[in-house]
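Quick one, T. Sequence first:
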Amino acid sequence: MRFIVRLRTTNDATIPINYQHALSSALYSFIKEANPDLSSSLHYSNDFKFFNFSNLKIPRNSIKGPVVHLKKGTSVMFNFSSPAADILEATVSGMLSTGKMGILGADFEIETIEMLKTPDFSGRALFRTLSPVYIDILRNGERWDLLPTDPEWRQRIEENSRKKYAHYFGRDYKGDFEIEQVRRMSSKRIEVHGQWWVSANVEFIQKAGPDMIKFLWDAGIGRKNSQGFGCLQFLG
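Structure tokens:
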């Protein structure tokens, strides 16, 4: 399930372009507002978090190199999704009761929270990322960030997707899983909490069972979904 959250700035502010960790923290604060036990279990768990969000949709003329200049009254929006009803309920409830959000000195009024209709998924989907996909691998004891140009990228995406699915549903996914075609790709280097991660914005065709495709739309693809990576837009 997915929501579009529309915000409006209530002050003039300048924030770094790498705001993902701060946005994730704000979402945790909403969950904590409505359900402290759920917030604590998510925050301190080393398992998958099972929520995802997109980049902020910001007017292009607000972005100047490594920073975003937001004037009072600027409208922005983002997608928030999860396969878990309790996470969605707590987040939306926290937003509604608080009515505002702060991100690195930028103050926002929460204007609307709109639930999107779930698409009718088949066994093949054209996706475009609303936040870049992150996946990595250990090589000789060191972390290597992978891009779609790496031969192991597809394999690691599949392994991660099957593992997340099994963890959430309590059963293995038995169907096909194939990224048939990457149509567009641009790399993105993002700083999150003092670490730099290399990720990719992509448009691709995903072949899988409808239940897996819906799960990817809800939970995100790749790793670090609860930090704002791998949010997908369904194009058809």
